[in-house]
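#onboarding

Welcome to the new folks! Below is a worked example of what a typical request in this channel looks like: someone posts a single protein sequence, and someone else replies with the predicted structure as tokens. Don't worry about understanding the tokens yet, we'll cover that in week two.

Example request:
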Amino acid sequence: MSDAERVRLRYAPDDDAIASALRGETFELYLRRSKTGPVESGDEWEEVVNDGCGRTKPVTLRVESVVGGSTVGERTRFEFHAATAE
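Example response:
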């Protein structure tokens, strides 16, 4: 198995604070560490993100596509798109 280059994720709910937290380098590092292993379209992950005010918000991440491999690893990058986005 090889590390995926990129994993495209849809997130819900669509919220500015959630979008900002997901795109942070720290969250991407967290995902690479916590989701190490096989990944495929259709996988869903229930996560919690910091909303920037010391509170957390639940978010559902759904794997839309995986490019360049079949596992999440050190080199995997993530793309986040709101569930309402086309």
